[in-house]
Amino acid sequence: MVLLVLLRILMFGLAVPGIVLCVDRVDQHQPAVVMYRNASLCPAGTPWEKADDCVAQTTGEVVGRDWSESCTTDSNGHSSCTRHYSVTVRFGERSQELGVAYRTYRTADRGDRAELRLWQGEVVRMVTEGHTETFLTSSEFALGGWLLFGWLLLAASWLALFGLWLYPLLGGWLLLTVPYVMVATNHLGINPMGTTGWSVAALLTAVGLWLVGRSLVEALSWR
Fold this sequence. Notes:
Blueprint: H1 2-37, E1 56-73, E2 79-91, E3 94-100, H2 102-107, E4 113-119, E5 122-128, E6 131-134, H3 138-162, H4 170-188, H5 194-221
Antiparallel strand pairs: 1-2, 1-4, 2-3, 4-5, 5-6
């Protein structure tokens, strides 16, 4: 029993500073994400190597394509595999491999023209053979990672505080995940929410908090 209490204290002691760190990292990466999302296209002819505050446009060429497969096996020995597709484009003296959907992989072929948009040297959009692929910048990817890590640490802090009491709160917690993901993707610019989205997020947050509060009161009444 003492060991379990110490473990929960240790978990809480690690989770709280971790959450503070996540907030700090999100605060650091968000200005770069906002700057990119508000950036306009560069004037025609602007070299992408010199485009710092605008989205450069250039023409590349598909020079290869590839796929890989990752498999997992469940406790019953059944395997499930997922394929990942990519194409390699060359623009100027630089080549870059980009993860794409199957429809783009199937259509793209060596020598095909690829219209590219770049933000500070990173490919953020590719159009080839009528198919459009968009990609996160490194700042967006980092911001999303810290937001996810912070959410997991918050769950760990709840587990440390409530222990087995967490299970009655699980329904409300899972519901709260939905508005959290909505707000996170809105910050990344992937899924702008608008008035309707914010209203839905607020409603789900209120219902989730009510479920959590009710479950907590019921759990306390049984003690």
